Structure formats: C-alpha cells, structure tokens
Amino acid sequence: MCLPQIARQQHFDIYTRAGITAAQFSSYNPGLDCSKLQIGQKVCVSPGSLPSNAPGPSPNGTCFEYFVQPNDNCFGIATKFTITVDQIEEWNKNTWKWKGCSGLQVGLAMCVSPGDSPPIPIIPGLHAFGFCGLTDEFCTTTGPNPCISNCGQPTLPSCSPGGTLGRYIAYYAGWGNRRTCGTNVAPADVNWEGFTDVKFAFATISQGMEIQLADQDVPLLKELVSQKEKYSSMKVTIALGGWDFSEMEPTRDLFSVMIGTSGNRATFISSVKNMMSTYQLDGIDIDFGTEDSNIRLINQPYIFIEYPGAIERGAPATDTPNLTAFFKELRAGIPSAIVSCATPAGYWFLKGFEIDKIVENVDYLNMMSYDYHGQWDTNVTD
C-alpha cells in the first residue's frame, strides 16, 4: 500500500512537496491523467497501491447504488469511491436514464460498483424511452426499444362477474357554492340518484393538528348529509385537502407536520372521529402529495401543477413512510368507516406513495385520471 496524498493543488506541487521526481510520481500513479486531477483526489507519493474504499455489489447482485447530488460530476464521484470514470461509464451502460457522465441528472440512481443496474421501482414493464405499461410494447425484451426493467407479461387479477363493487363518486365543492357568477348549486339542488359516494370538499387541518371545516361550509355539509334520507344508497365522506391548503402559506406544510409524529396523528384521528360523529359522516378521503425520498428539487411553493402538494414542493423524505403509518392508524381508529385516498395518475408523483402498503388500509384509491389529458393535448392530431 502506498503513502497516499490528497490533492489540493497541481501535481507539480504534490510531488515537489513530497520530495520525489515527476518520473517517480508518474510511476507511482500509472494511468493518472494529471489534467483531470480533482481536489480531494488521493494519489500515491511512494510505491504501492492506494487504499481502496470502493464498494462491492449488494448481496442480491445489484450494484452499489449512488444517488446523484446537485453539482456532482463523475470525476468527483470516482474520487469519493476510489474508482475511475471509465469504470463508472462501463458499470452504467444499462442504468435507466443514464446519459453518460456528461449528462448526470440530480436524483439518478447509478452504479459505483459492478453488478446489475439499480432496479426501477415500478411494477409494470419499462421500455427504453422510460414509459411503463402492461402490454407487449412495454414488456417484451426484443425490438428497437426493448423492456429494461420488470420485463415479462404480468398476470392480471380477475374475479367473477358479480365479484366487483361498482362505485359512482362525486365531489361537492363547498367553495363552489360561494362563487359570484350566479350559477351556485346547493346540495339539495342536485339529483344524487345512482351515486354511491359523495365527498364534501374540503376540510383542512388546524394549527392544533385537528380536522376543521370553514364556518360557511357547515350548513352546506349538513344539507348534503341530509340528502341520504332521500338517496339511501349514498354515502357522504369528508375530503381533506384542496389547492390553497396544500400549496399556499401558511398551511402548505401542515399535512406533513401532522403525519410527522405519532402524537400528531393520534390528535388528528381523534378529531376525525369527532367530526364524523357530529355530522353523521361515513368516512374520509385523503388528498396529499409526497416526495420521492431520492429526489430533492428546489422548493416551488406556487408551481402550477394539477396535483396538490406534489413532488416539486420539496417535502421531507420521511413523508413517505409517515403517510403509510398514518393510513394504518387511521384505519385502526375508524375500522368500519370508508377510508379512501386520492392518488395522482403519473408515476412521477406516485413515487412518493407506498401504494402497496397503503392499499391494505383503504377501501379504494381514487386516481385523478384528469392528469392524463388537458390543454397540452389541443394540437395532437393522431
């Protein structure tokens, strides 16, 4: 093992200070390109090899993963792990979204050891352009754009013809009744025939971590609940969320704070039980967005997106497991009530949800499929 020296200046200064010649320095560091020497990089100033902290593959054969940080470059990453840039390029040939060292993307999971590429955290097949799905287009491993993760046609679940439960869901927006355009519709004005679930939107969270409803919404909620006498198959639940609450100060972080501790969650769930009892509600719908734990984006509190509290809000990574714990505790607190969760349609936003765990404690997921199409489609011709 050689005597290591940490580069803090040019190679001339390193070998001069070490009392060796340029030829000796070159012989001690074969293959070193001095023009690419990085501050903090270890070099040898004596015979032998550098001590290595290069990681090995994981026990399951997957490479050792590193998540690209802001201002990272391959030289710096190679220096950190005592590997080479050429090794990084070689190990990441099959890494999803890898564009070479010249195109590093913040948050990208990359290999810093030999091994299989980092798994793509989605269940459907993923083809080379990054789109996922369940058909041959996404799942086959041949062709010009083959599947690169979770390949193979999945087995879709099935049930008997009478084994499904159809739900017909509507939202009644309390704030919509206060518009000044002259088209306000009260709950009693609506024909609710055929609807199984009607959600009153929206309740919010108080600074004391309790569910709350605007004073002007109270009579509207009572009127909506009273419609159950006329429409016996209709269930009324309270929807928690809303654009202003989720995205504007000073309330935009309250959901994250509420789910952040077991004490706050218990306080909130207790208040939900009280509200359900007070207004004879049948359950609650949760509308909350979380952040993927491996991606950090600049906080943009007023970004115009169609999903409240989504990944761009820079939420803490702990939101993901905390939300899962919240649903588990909510279900335990109101075991016979309807618990639903509004989810985004796109994988980009879904990455912050542990959907496979959340579904164990909800009656259904209400996917916001309006995210699939919008004004951006106006010029599509095929």
Key terms:
single chain; 382 residues; alpha/beta; Membrane-bound Lytic Murein Transglycosylase D, Chain A; TIM Barrel; 3 domains; three-stranded antiparallel β-sheet; 25% helix; LysM; chitin-binding; Chitinase_II/V-like_cat; chitin binding
Task: Describe the structure in your own words.
- Helices cover 25% and strands 15% of the residues.
- It is α/β, with parallel strands linked by helices and 382 residues long.
- The chain folds into three domains: 4-44, Roll (Membrane-bound Lytic Murein Transglycosylase D, Chain A), CATH 3.10.350; 65-149, LysM domain (Membrane-bound Lytic Murein Transglycosylase D, Chain A); 169-377, TIM Barrel, CATH 3.20.20.
- The chain starts with a strand and ends in a 14-residue tail after the last strand.
- 27% of the residues are buried.
- Mean pLDDT is 81; it is low at 290-311.
- This is Chitinase.
